[in-house]
Structures are given as structure tokens and as C-alpha cells.
Amino acid sequence: MEPVKLGIIGCGIAARKLHFPALQKLKDKFEVVMVCNHTEPKAKSFAEMLGNVPYVLDYHELLTNSKVEAVLIILPIHLNYKVTLDALKAGKNVLLEKPIASNLEEARKMLLFKKLYPQVKMVAENFRFRETFYRVQEIIKNDIIGEPYAAVWNIFYQITSDSQYAQTEWRINHQYPGGFVTDGGVHNIAALRMLFGDFIQTNAFSKSINPTIGKTDTFSMQFKTEQNVHGVLNLFFSPVGYEQNEFHIFGEKGSIFIDSNDIIIKTSKEEETRESIDDDGGYINQLDDFYRAIRENTENHSPFEESFRDFEIIVKALTIDEGNNY
Ligand code: NAP
């Protein structure tokens, strides 16, 4: 089958560091035919990375190019709604970087796209495609730890104003609630929902420790899911001198501890098995899913409805937490 002819809108960090390596591995499935960035140096240098493909500065020009079958939208979040709508109106298949939108009103309107436009509409929520979480699903399905009843996920990672993500002005003066908490937190919500079902109850608190990185950087949420798993998600982006990403899952017969790409299973104090998972972050699986949805007409595994829900959970948690201006 022919590779999908892809146009990329937004040539920043995620385009270069996350999508470019995955596209290099999927040359039989995607041919990048045009890229766009509103500032020329980034458009030009990314076009060169891809082998001197044509570049444009106005995304409308990319959308009117009949060669482009599908678009990968990797823009500041507040542009997601408008550019997605324009791409669908132009008849393109869409793979949109998460989170789905910058507010719930726009996100709700994006749910209506399902009926209005027949093309593939998918959100690039890579956590839905990570090998680590596929393996955890398998461990749970094989009854190795029994019925999961609780989960605790701690992300302690200091983002300072000189870190690459804090250099993007749209993240610091964010036009969406939650700043880094929302930008990063939708990933964790997506994984938790994929493993334990939808959230049916939440309670959250947030605050800002370092205002130079946005209005919110510290968030704790208690949750309960439809599979009766309860737990805590802590997203702390300003802890001084401490870094940790630890995901614990507790089952009736054992526990799972995910430490980066290592899965540690404990079925007693003494018994422990450790597996190292080959996990690129899900970027290759994600693109492959998009390809199959276009060429083989399969259902994509990250439809707008799922990403809407990830986003809604975190935005509502922030809204209910009235002590902050997020
Ligand atoms: P970024 O580095 O700022 O990239 C965005 C790019 O869009 C910049 O190059 C920017 O150019 C360009 N741009 C802005 N307005 C434009 C317009 N109207 N037309 C064309 N180009 C325009 O940000 P990023 O870190 O790549 O993030 C982009 C998206 O990817 C966000 O949705 C983010 O949440 C997502 N992301 C996902 C992951 C993941 O793991 N899935 C990781 C990181 C980011 P200038 O900089 O010159 O203004």
C-alpha cells in the first residue's frame, strides 16, 4: 500500500524530538510532503531534516495542497481547535497533538466533528500506545497480581525557567487552565483510564510554587475509577533537588511498580521479577495506528472522545479547586 502523504504543521520541539525519529522508522507508511511553521528558520531547518521537503509559513497553504492527504498538528495548544477545524474542512485526515483543546467549550465542539467530517480524527496521546502499559494490561489480565484495587503515581520533576519546555512562550503565558499540570497530566489520566476504566470521582488541590513557569505547577488528585480502583496522582513540577516518576499499582495478590521503562512485579516480600520494556514512548505505535485507520479503515485507538475525557477530568479538577487562579 502507498505511504500516506503527510503534512506537518508546527516544527518545534515535539516535531523534531518525538515525531521525527518515529517517522524515520516508518518511511514505508508515511511520506512527509510538506511542513509548515509560521517562522521561517524553524520551517526551513525542519524541512532540511526531512530531506529538503517543501515548506510554507502559512498553514492554509499546506491545507490547500492536494498532495497532502493527512496532517500532523503540533502547535501551541490554543491553536488546536481552529487548525483542526480548518484541516477537516479541507478534507484532510488529522492527527492532533494532545491535549485536545485549550478549553472545554472548544473541546466539546470538537466532539461534533465526528458527525460532520468522515476523515480520520485522532489525538496523538502517546501514552495510549506505550508498550509499558500494554504489558501492565497483560499482567493484570493474566491475574498475576489479582484484582487491582489502588494506584499511586508520583511525578516529581523540576521544570526551571531555563528548561526547553519553559522556553516556549505559549506554555508560560498559557491560554488554558493548569499550565504544565494540564499539558503533562492528560498523559497520566489517559494511562490510568486505559488501565482501570473511567474516573467516576475526583478531588484535587493545586498551587503555584514557581510563577515563572506558569500559573500552576503542583497538583494532587485523588480518584476513583469505574473498576473500583482508587488512588492518587501527584504532579509536582517544582520540587527542588528531587526527581522521581514512580507508578505503583496494588492488587489483591501482588503489586506492580513502574520505574521508567522497568516493570517490577512483587507477589510477596521476597518474590520479585523485573522486566525492561522496549518503550519508545508510543510514538511509533501511534503513527502506525493512524496509518491503519487511513489505509485499512480500522478504528483508531485515540479518538477525540477519549482525549476529550482526559482533558475534561483535569480541567474540572482544577475548576473545583477554587483556591487557585490556575
Ligand atoms: P513548540 O516547540 O513551541 O512547537 C510549536 C511550533 O509551532 C513552534 O515551532 C512554533 O513556531 C509553531 N507555530 C506557532 N504558531 C504557528 C502557526 N500559526 N502556524 C504555524 N506554526 C506555528 O512546542 P512543542 O513542545 O513542540 O509542543 C507542541 C505540541 O506538542 C503541544 O500540543 C504539546 O502539548 C505537544 N507535545 C506533546 C508531547 C508528547 O509527549 N506527546 C511532548 C511535547 C509536546 P515559533 O516557536 O517560531 O513560534
Order of strands, widest sheet: 8-9-10-7-11-12-13-14
- CATH topology name of the largest domain, in short, is Dihydrodipicolinate Reductase, domain 2
Count the DSSP helices.
Answer: 11
CATH class of the largest domain: Alpha Beta
The secondary-structure class comes to alpha/beta
> Which cofactor or ligand species appear?
NADP nicotinamide-adenine-dinucleotide phosphate
Corresponding CATH architecture of the largest domain: 2-Layer Sandwich
Number of strands: 14
How would you characterize the overall build of this protein?
- There is one protein chain.
- Helices cover 34% and strands 26% of the residues.
- With 326 residues, it is an alpha/beta fold.
- It has two domains: 4-126 and 283-302, 3-Layer(aba) Sandwich (Rossmann fold), CATH 3.40.50; 128-279 and 311-325, 2-Layer Sandwich (Dihydrodipicolinate Reductase, domain 2).
- The strands form two sheets. The chain has an eight-stranded mixed sheet with strand order 8-9-10-7-11-12-13-14.
- The N and C termini lie far apart (47 Å).
- NADP nicotinamide-adenine-dinucleotide phosphate (NAP) is lined by residues 9-15, 18, 36-39, 42, 59, 74-77, 79, 97-98, 124, 126, 168, 183.
